[in-house]
Records
---
Amino acid sequence: MSIILAGAGPGDPELLTIAAMKALENAELVVSDRLVHADILAFAKCEVKIALKTTGRSDPAQDELSEWCLEGLGAGKRVVRLKIGDPFVFGRGGEEVLWYRERGFECQIIPGICSALAGPLEVGIPVTHRGASEQVLICTGRGRNGTYPNIPEYDPARTIVILMGVGRLGELSAMLIKDKQFPSSTPVNVVQSATTPEMKQCMGTLQDIEDKAKQAEVKAPAVITIGGVVDVLRPVDTVRD
Ligand SMILES: C[S@@+](CC[C@H](N)C(=O)[O-])C[C@H]1O[C@@H](n2cnc3c(N)ncnc32)[C@H](O)[C@@H]1O
């Protein structure tokens, strides 16, 4: 008996993999959280359980989700645990693999398109671009116990992509300028709900992005992209029909 741990992609159902779609169609129990769009969950033809994963409630919600899956596995069901984006990028997917293994169940893992790459792409930002960036650093804006990411000193050839950081955009920008020698003019994009109908974005620099995000009311879930790549293709229209 095994459980499928599947990535749901960044939001648009068209960006679900065929493997994930088949797993949903064949499942007897799907367990997910509110970050996954209803149109994706609609592929499931079985019971779907959703835990309310909100800031400050992620640990109890995680326990609830895991217990639901365990119950389903105990009842001999084909269980799919669906997670936003890719299950192994800031998705606690690895922790879940270990948790189920301790209880005698192996996970089959289906990758998903990660918001850290799809978010910038959706607003026309290539995270690498010859002559502009040859490295991408993906980090969380909020580490365990609320810590700040340990971003290396400024390198113009490195793109920084931050997940879960929009609520502390001001502090993160100030830290990069003050402690990491980033020029205050470094371009920044913030995109919320990329690939979904609720998508919105704002552009600015490390100096003014906090104000711009407030004006544009850009909130979580959002991807922050920092570096010269933000500007290399502007203007570009990548919106799919
Ligand atoms: C717990 S992390 C999960 C990341 C996920 N595993 C992935 O690969 O995209 C949740 C964060 O992902 C980012 N995120 C996920 N989907 C997004 C989307 N459609 N648009 C913007 N940010 C998104 C946000 O930073 C959000 O706070």
---
Amino acid sequence: MPDDIARPPDPAEPRPRGGHCVVLGASIAGLFAARVLSDAFDRVTVVDRDALPETDENRRGVPQGRHAHAILPAGTRGLQQLFPGLLEEFEADGVPVVREPVEMHFAPGGHLLCQEGRYADPTPTYQPTRPRLEGQVRRRVGALPGVEIIDRCEAAGLTGTPDRTRVTGVRLVRRGDGAERELAADLVVDATGRGGRTTRWLSDLGYEPPREDRIAVDIKYVSRNLRLAPGALGRRKVVIVGAAPGRPTGATLLQHGADHWMLTLIGYGGHHPPTDPGEFLEFAKPVMPSDVFEALCAAEPLDDPVAHRYPASVRRRYERLERFPEGLLVFGDAICSFNPVYGQGMSVAALQADALRECLGKGRDRLSYRFFRAAARRIEVAWQMAVGSDLSLPEVTGPRPLPVRLTNAFFDRVMTAAERDPVVAQEFVKVGSLLSSPLILLHPRTVGRVLLGNLLHPARRD
Ligand SMILES: Cc1cc2nc3c(=O)[nH]c(=O)nc-3n(C[C@H](O)[C@H](O)[C@H](O)COP(=O)(O)OP(=O)(O)OC[C@H]3O[C@@H](n4cnc5c(N)ncnc54)[C@H](O)[C@@H]3O)c2cc1C
């Protein structure tokens, strides 16, 4: 009989420790999952098809590593819990840390948020490069007892019991010589990214794949590393200018070291940034504040611009499946891949790690049933915010029912008030950082400030 994941977990089930878990994919989500699983399983094997570098450099399987990667405060909290001491190490190594509003120029939806005051929530933002973050996390996970990381091995499919109710392991193909082998596991976790191999593997095992929600955004990223003169941007360590209705382009400038910055230009369909080095900066001119643009013109390029296309946000509704085999989970972007301009992916992977820890704490009975639902709850807010923001741009096609239009109109008023009101700005940033539910913005005190702010000052576009 196939497993019916709609059956609720048995609370009386003991919480076993031990067994072998295989995690497919050694990027951020796979490593976060492995960290949590190492507390519940005797052995955790992490498999990646890439050659994993010894040093903190980019690799083929993570092309997004060449582009701006911000960790939201929700992700920072996740890193603190999963890898105590890691953030302190970053700071000691000179990784820039944003602690005050004055250090962040943040202009979402055409509104430059107020840079006055202090953050009430003390969670700072750390700015390592993406390869550095992944490299440090990988070394820590690899050093955990019972964890082995195998690279240059491609997961080609799953093995299962004859009745296909349980996954029993994974088929691996070694890169280079093509040697095949099977790796037995009590639990297989697919963290192979937005490609989402499990959907095909489920069909091979005789299961329905999950329904997919998609929002076509047709985003292009073009990025390059720059050396900026010390102090060129004053106290600012990050500049983020989001797209706005009427201007479907944006830019992020992230400080990674004393004089090392990464500039990422972003454009929705029909407004893609150029990779030609000469035209690259021109694209930034109408987007960036004029003093930042001047600093960019005076900067020394450290490499050539590189591009990345991102066609659509994709959410796979595993939590809605009625049948799913035992011994299998899906994790990270393989469940939900967000439009990257909102910087949510790694933080949501940390929230999923939290969901996994919570579920494993209650035993392994009906693990997929419980995990997919717990993960979906954490994904929901981030997904709604990303989709809602995208739908505020006429360039993005998709249904805009009344609740979406009302929510977007309300968010626009919140951002208008947040241009001058540090309290509203902080509430908005907390929501966007996935630290608080958007419902906090409906608190009468906040609504009052939003109304007053909009009455006193007309909207300003930056
Ligand atoms: C352009 C861009 C910018 C982004 N910016 C941000 C940002 O600012 N902030 C943020 O939080 N997130 C950002 N993200 C999202 C973030 O990169 C991901 O959410 C994060 O990497 C977690 O993804 P993942 O580990 O699930 O998958 P991925 O990072 O895609 O990794 C998948 C891994 O699986 C391996 N793999 C694939 N297939 C196989 C196979 N068959 N066998 C074995 N191994 C396999 C790959 O080699 C890779 O290591 C961005 C994404 C993009 C595309």
